[in-house]
Write a structure and sequence with these properties.
Layout lengths: L5 H5 L4 H20 L3 H9 L6 E8 L2 E10 L3 E10 L2 E2 L9 E2 L2 E6 L3 E6 L5 E6 L1 E6 L1
Antiparallel strand pairs: 1-2, 1-5, 2-3, 3-9, 4-8, 6-7, 7-8
Amino acid sequence: MKYFDKDFLSGELSDEEYENRIQNYNMYIDEVLKKSNFKIRLFIKNISLHDATILEVNTCNNKLNCRILAGDNQTGRVLLVFSFFDYKYDNIVQKMLPFKIAYYELCFTNEYCLSFISDDFNEIKINFSDISIFIE
């Protein structure tokens, strides 16, 4: 992860660097969203996966499906199913479930990449071409 890495999570950064990373990511994601389809923009602008939990990962019909419990005690919790199309990911994910997301970031070069980091600094990366999200 480029912005929300181990140093960011562990408090190793100065207050200024911490704020700079957030600001730099927000500027970067604004540029990515200009090139993104409606579903990606909707996800990034309206769904927070901060402190969410990946409960299950499976593949079906050339999609990677992730069941994720999102939200918190104040806003309420919701079970979401993310389907990633044309995906690539590390199968080690299965061994880390449930995976508590501390931070996540979206990036785009030739394809989208969604990276997650947990409180204990484990990382998951999913590359994909498109996404769909359903409330379960």
